[in-house]
Design goal:
Distance between the termini: 40 Å
Largest sheet: 8 strands, antiparallel
Number of strands: 12
Strand content: 35-45%
CATH class: Alpha Beta
Oligomer: single chain
CATH topology: Alpha-D-Glucose-1,6-Bisphosphate, Chain A, domain 4
CATH superfamily: START domain
Length: 216
Amino acid sequence: MRRGTFRDETVDYAAVGATQAPDLMHYPPERSLPAEESWRIGSGESRFQTAGESLLSWAAQRGAGLTLSDVRPAAGPMYSGVSFDAEGNAIAPSRTVADQRFDADGTPFVGAGTTIRLAGRIKGMRADGEYRVIFAVEESRRVGFALGTVSDAVVSGEESFMLDWYDNDEVWFTVRAFDAPNSIFYRMIPALTRRRRRELFQGYLRAISPLYQTPA
């Protein structure tokens, strides 16, 4: 089991970890727009493990058409900090040191405190920026992490990516986010923030779920 949370003043929003709040959709952080989607992506341990490996090797971001660069794992021993269970409840702090893993291209896997740069456009909408992994979870039936904005993004906020293998053997992929527009253009037209989020969600799903089919 691996759990980690990274708290750092360099993120550009205040509600760190709020993607795990049960009432996010009803009470999002101030001036932010919340979003949440869940998809059943199959069943069984094999599907869960395969999806988990993909998720922790940044497949969701790449599948959405984004390019990763400057991936910097947290320096020194990782502080696990406060983590969250499936209902968003805080779990007591602990300290662990996880073995660093790498994908086929040599990119470090997701880890609490890792900083990355993402670049790309989603249907013409910019998705560039610097992000930090706020928390990471790797358990027997739950895998996921959250990314928080650090700088240079058109919105500020957080998005979490969680895989759950439930007792009924179903595997579900859930993405939750809240975005506060940074640029004047996005502030003037809130619909652009929502559209950008919808497109990102669909890209993440295409990357993680072999069952995904684009609606006609």
